[in-house]
Design brief:
The complex is a heterodimer of chains A (about 400) and B (about 200).
Chain A: H1 18-27, H2 32-36, H3 41-52, E1 56-61, E2 66-69, H4 71-77, H5 81-84, H6 95-111, E3 120-126, E4 132-144, E5 147-156, H7 158-185, H8 187-212, H9 220-248, E6 256-258, H10 260-278, E7 282-286, E8 293-295, H11 297-316, E9 325-331, E10 337-342, H12 350-353, H13 371-381, E11 386-390, E12 396-402
Parallel strand pairs in A: 7-9
Antiparallel strand pairs in A: 1-2, 1-5, 3-4, 4-5, 6-8, 9-10, 10-12, 11-12
Helix pairs in contact in A: 1-3, 7-13, 8-9, 10-11, 11-13
Chain B: E1 5-9, H1 13-25, E2 30-33, H2 36-42, E3 49-54, H3 62-71, E4 78-82, H4 87-95, E5 100-103, H5 108-140, H6 144-154, H7 159-166, H8 170-183, H9 189-204
Parallel strand pairs in B: 1-2, 1-3, 3-4, 4-5
The chains are: A alpha+beta (about 400), B alpha/beta (about 200).
Chain lengths: ~400, ~200
């Protein structure tokens, strides 16, 4: 029985008899001339494959020395074959991998425990000029009499990574524009919210000064009350600004495990601004014992705020504004958390419903109609889906789910 | 008649509380309400004074409250407190007959001046109402025939013409005329004419 390349390696050369591979491996050092001298067609096919492969193919022995380095590898790494053959493969790795690599191999030889062999994963590699770049690496093992060899197939994924990052950056910027636009629409309400405590402070202070003025008498309890109120109202104004800044901050907090219910409670302050003005009650129905979800807190809050504001807008056209808007969380059947915002407004007209997530589609007189479109983009970027269903009791339900966060 | 009072309508507890103390510090009677609905429920036609209301409130806005009050025949002057960006709303309020508006945060003296103006306006409005009521009551005491004579006298017609017009004797007209002067409490023809033209102008306002 001749050994075969183990499964988990690229299908393209699975099934090539290992003795053919062996011949190729053994003749690599002496150049293509001697390889051609073999009459084995399997070996010739394999050599053709090495030459033509778009992916880099590198074969090493148990000691980590490079035995094969195909043209695609030369192109990706910037080394020519002659420079690398016989040298340790760690020369193709960034320092932190390189130092650990011999240890990994020793660990595998000692325990047989697979960390990468037969499995593909994303790692980093180093080019001749020292630049580090992301690669998809899959490694297969070839068992030959007396020795094992390893075949690594490498794809340079820097372009893909760059695109992904660009997409993420764009999406984040779009989300930020959405937040500023929302705050612009809410500016009057926010100004009112800051003006209230300022007006109170101003009136309290002027009243105190009047009380202290010549010829006036006052109740010391009133004066004490005024001082406490001035301090309390100053804190209140500061709190509005603090929360607003939190919502509009431009530095990216990134994604982390989040408490869904806390996210909702935090954003209720802004949601209430709109709801109170339109006389629409907001009700929270939050499930307990929810798993943490993975995401960017501000972006998810932005989606929730947007959905609530839409729901409040829909309800405000009704003469009867009860039971208002219900904001709920629940365990999702696939794990994770389902968020929903339910209103009892006029519902969404069928022609609008079909394109409700398209930008610039709106039934409102104000606003751009980008809120739902941005919200859906945000939820998709979080691996979820934002969907609309009609409320059986009249009105609309918007819901989305977020995957559970797996903490390291 | 109740004592003239400043009615404060503001949803914000702190603003309400501060205004209450401000009124107290200058010795003006004040009452506070947390919403337009609350004030509407408390309003009686006998209430006197003026209203200080926030223009932007949840549920019923200040403007809506003002409109509802006007529909019920409330003529208390209204001073609106507005936020910085609420100028269009303030303009609307002025068109709807508000006395004035002050922007938040305001100088307490500005608000107190407006309040005094409101109280003054309401007082003279009330006096005019009393005068109209008084004159109307006197007019109601006239018989239809006396009413006809009054109209013609005020129009400047001599007794002879009135007598011919109403197909009665001059003597009868003289008797009616004396009765009119008595019931209207007019000492002279000039005073009677003045009284009637005053009533006309007052009713127009």
């Amino acid at each position: 029985m001749l050994p075969y390349i183990l499964p988990g390696v690229n299908r393209a050369y699975r099934g090539v008899p290992a003795n053919a591979l062996w011949n190729v491996l053994m003749t690599a050092d002496s150049g293509s001339g001697s390889a051609e001298s073999t009459s084995d067609t399997g070996g010739a096919n394999f050599r053709a494959l090495l030459q033509a492969a778009v992916d880099a193919i590198i074969v090493i022995n148990e000691a980590g020395s490079i035995l094969q380095f195909n043209p695609a590898a030369e192109k990706i790494f910037g080394f020519c074959q002659a420079e690398v053959l016989g040298r340790n493969v760690s020369m193709l790795m960034p320092a932190h991998y390189a130092q650990a690599h011999d240890g990994y191999m020793a660990h595998y030889h000692a325990t047989g425990e697979r960390r990468i062999i037969g499995i593909g994963r994303e790692v980093e590699a180093r080019r001749r000029d020292g630049t580090v770049f992301p690669i998809d690496l899959s490694v297969g093992q070839v068992d030959l009499p007396g020795a094992a060899h390893y075949v690594g197939i490498i794809r340079d994924i820097s372009a893909r990574k760059r695109n992904e990052q660009e997409m993420r950056d764009l999406q984040e910027r779009l989300a930020r524009v959405g937040r500023f636009s929302t705050m612009g629409e809410m500016a009057a309400g926010l100004a009112h919210e800051i003006n209230q405590p300022l007006a109170a402070i101003s009136t309290y202070a002027q009243t105190a000064s009047r009380m202290l003025g010549a010829g006036s008498s006052y109740d010391p309890q009133d004066m004490d009350h005024i001082c406490r109120q001035v301090s309390e109202q100053a804190r209140r104004a500061g709190e509005v600004i603090r929360r607003l800044r939190g919502f509009l901050r431009t530095e990216d907090a990134g994604r982390q495990p989040l408490d869904s219910n806390a996210l909702i409670r935090e954003i209720m302050f802004l949601a209430e601004l709109d709801a109170r003005e339109h006389g629409v009650p907001l009700t929270l129905m939050l499930a307990e014992g929810l798993p943490r979800v993975h995401g960017n807190a501000v972006e998810i809050q932005q989606v929730i705020l947007n959905l609530i504001r839409n729901a409040v807008g829909a309800m405000s056209e009704q003469a009867d504004r009860s039971p208002g808007v219900i904001i709920a969380t629940a365990h999702h059947e696939d794990g994770g958390v389902e968020f929903s915002v339910t209103d009892y407004g006029p519902g969404v007209a069928e022609d609008i419903a079909r394109q409700i997530f398209h930008p610039f589609v709106t039934s409102k007189h104000h606003g751009l109609g980008v809120g739902l479109s941005i919200s859906r983009t945000i939820i998709q970027a979080h691996g979820g889906r934002l969907a609309f269903v009609p409320n059986p009791a009249g009105g609309a339900i918007f819901r989305f789910q977020l995957p559970e966060a797996f903490e390291d | 008649m109740t004592q003239p009072t400043v009615f404060i309508v503001d949803d914000d507890h702190a603003v309400r509380d501060a205004l209450r103390l401000l009124l107290k510090s200058v010795g003006l009677p004040g009452e506070v309400f947390a919403s337009g609905d609350e004030f509407l429920a408390a309003w009686r036609p006998t209430l006197r004074g003026c209203i200080v209301a926030d223009i932007r409130m949840p549920g019923m806005s200040g403007l809506e409250m003002h409109e509802a009050l006007q529909q019920r025949g409330c003529r208390l002057p209204v001073i609106f407190i507005t936020g910085h960006g609420d100028v269009p709303m303030a303009v609307e309020a002025m068109k709807a007959g508000a006395l004035d508006f002050v922007q938040k945060p305001f100088r307490d003296q500005d608000l107190l001046d407006r309040i005094n103006e409101g109280l003054q306006q309401e007082k003279s409005l009330r006096e005019v109402e009393v005068e109209i009521d008084e004159l109307t009551a006197r007019l109601r005491a006239l018989t239809p025939r006396e009413r006809q004579v009054l109209e013609r006298v005020v129009a400047g017609q001599p007794n002879k013409v009135i007598a011919m017009d109403l197909k009665v004797s001059q003597r009868t007209v003289e008797i009616h005329r004396a009765r009119v002067m008595e019931k209207m409490q007019a000492r002279s023809l000039a005073q009677l004419v003045k009284m009637m033209s005053r009533l006309e102008t007052l009713r127009d306002t």
